[in-house]
Amino acid sequence: METIPNTPSQNRSFTTIFLIEMWERFGFYGMQALIVYYMVQRLGFPDERATLVWGAAAALIYVAPAIGGWIGDKVLGTRRTMLLGAAVLSVGYSLLVVPGQSVWFLFCALGVIVVGNGLFKANAGNMVRKIYEGDDSRIDSAFTIYYMSVNLGAMISQLLTPWLKDYVNENYGNELGWHVAFAVCAIGLLLGLLNYGLMRRFMTHIGSEPDELPVPWGKLGLVLIGCVVTVFASAYILENQGVARAFVYLAGVVVIGIFAYLIGTGQRDERAGLIAALVLTVQSVFYFIFYQQMSTSLALFALRNVDPSFVVFGVHLWDWSPAQFQAFNPIWIFILSPVLAWAYTRAGKAGKDISIAAKFALGFVIVAAGFFIYGASQHLADATGKVSSWLLVWGYGAISLGELLVSGLGLAMIARYVPARMGGFMMGAYFVASGVSQYLGGLVATFAAVPQNITDPLESLPIYTTLFNQLGIAALVCAAIAIAVLPLMNRLSQTHHGNSQEGGV
Fold first, then answer.
1. Which distant-in-sequence residues (6+ apart) come within 8 Å of 328 by Cβ?
2. The dihedral formed by the CA atoms of 474, 477, 478 and 483, expressed in degrees to the nearest 10
């Protein structure tokens, strides 16, 4: 194949995707930091309904990329679909800016966010895969740094939007602050699109086959009609929890069916990689049950049982807004991501790369430690039933390291084990599996739902700590299972690597 002169470097192409992903996640996590509080404090939802609605919304948000990945691969092109998704997301966050207390309007806005994320997420990840295709050690490092972009955007927005909400509510009225904060989320998406526009020359050679063809206006029209239908379908699902539960469980069955079909009908030299991807995807499903607690049970725990004062060596620095505690997760990931990326690259060059399966097993052990830290709140709380904000710092630190080892490498796992011809679709399937577990995580969070008549932190504390200790035990069980299947995963990985080398000859 002839080398194209003046082709932009991998680093410049990656930087372009890094920045648009950062701004997209700025908008998403700013919204996520507030949405459960908005439902509980502004709309008067009971804890159980708020966590289940957000669990269902998160599930749909993660399920939608399965379709978005296919649209990117086969219909509009990976690059075009990613940009369309960013534009739709900006509309979704803009709808949350509209003042009012209409529950149906909220569900429709979340429906638009579902559609936008579906178009954006799988295709952004697939663009990274295309940039570093064929280089396994650099793919792991690239996706770890890519994951850092997610958390850089999250860190900034989860610190900014709760503060902005509180400031505006305090000074200009209790309704306006929520909507100003959501407006900032929309602005983040617009900045992401502007940034891409300035750097688009570095991406002209990256994408799927449809990107190289003229815009298919007829197909684009059909996609947009499908988007509108999906918005209202999503709103209906969010309003009806029985329908939501059935939909999510059906999605889980579909994912398993997809893997079974591809393993059964795929080329012989592809099966080992597909089986390895299936095992790791199942492990990821269990991980996201723990992950979902950060925006549900842990968020409400921070509201009711955490002292907002931030004290260092006896000096009071500031008070946290409860929603800002979620920023501890991206702060830790932002710190740890480059360290792990360096470690992966160094280990790869030395021929001592740790398998993704081993990283998953270690991740579950560390996640367990994080929840046991939260469970210790029962013994560390003061006389009022509240714990120091430092407990959340260290708990989030453990969970964040576990997240990098499991969720942070999920897309890298798909990139490594799944054939390139089905990359976008299978990344979408991975997100579907993640969506199923997000809803399951919402269901788990309802075990710590505090009745609306309980306002005393001493009464809510044991409700939360019981769940956290149970989650710690569950994470250890997941770690034990992951360790037990390591020999199988090593054999599958070796077979896949051998087949890949033979195919490249």
1. 392, 393, 396, 397, 400
2. 160
Q: Within a domain: residue 450?
A: yes
Which single residue is written with the structure tokens 């904000």? Answer: 389
Q: Residues 6 or more apart from 426 whose CB is under 8 A from it?
A: 69, 277, 414, 418
What pLDDT, in 10s, does the model give residues 461-501?
999 999 999 999 999 999 998 888 888 777 777 776 666 55
Question: Which structural domain, as residue segments, surrounds residue 112?
Answer: 10-504
pTM of the predicted model, to two decimals?
Answer: 0.81
Please name the residues in contact with 270: beta carbons below 8 A apart, sequence gap of 6 or more.
Answer: 419, 499
Question: Please, is 110 exposed, middle or buried when counting C-beta atoms within 10 Å of its C-beta (0-12, 13-18, 19+)?
Answer: buried
Cα angle, residue 436 at apex, residues 113 and 184 outer, rounded to 5°: 25
Average pLDDT, stretch 244-252? 85
Distances (CA, A) of 83 to 31, 76, 116, 218, 330: 20, 11, 10, 18, 24
Cα–Cα distances in Å, from 190 out to 80, 93, 194? Answer: 16, 11, 6
pLDDT at 505 over 70: no
32-80 per-position pLDDT tens digit: 999 999 999 888 899 999 999 999 998 888 888 778 878 888 888 888 8
Residue 3 covered by a domain: no
> How is residue 4 annotated by DSSP?
P
Give the type of residue at 159.
Answer: L
Q: Which helix (H) or strand (E) holds 158?
A: helix 136-172
Question: Is residue 362 a contact partner of residue 383, using CB atoms and an 8 Å limit?
Answer: no
Packed helices 103-131 and 136-172: angle between N→C axes, nearest 10 degrees: 150
| Res 83: pLDDT | 87
Instruction: Decide if 86 is inside a domain.
Output: yes
**CATH number for the domain including 71?**
1.20.1250.20
| 120: nearest Cα among 74, 78, 161 | 78
Alpha helices in 173-267 (DSSP H): 176-199, 217-239, 241-265
Give the three-state DSSP class for 318. strand
Answer whether residue 5 is part of any domain: no
Structural domain count, the chain: 1
Whole-angstrom distance, CA of residue 463 vs CA of residue 450: 7
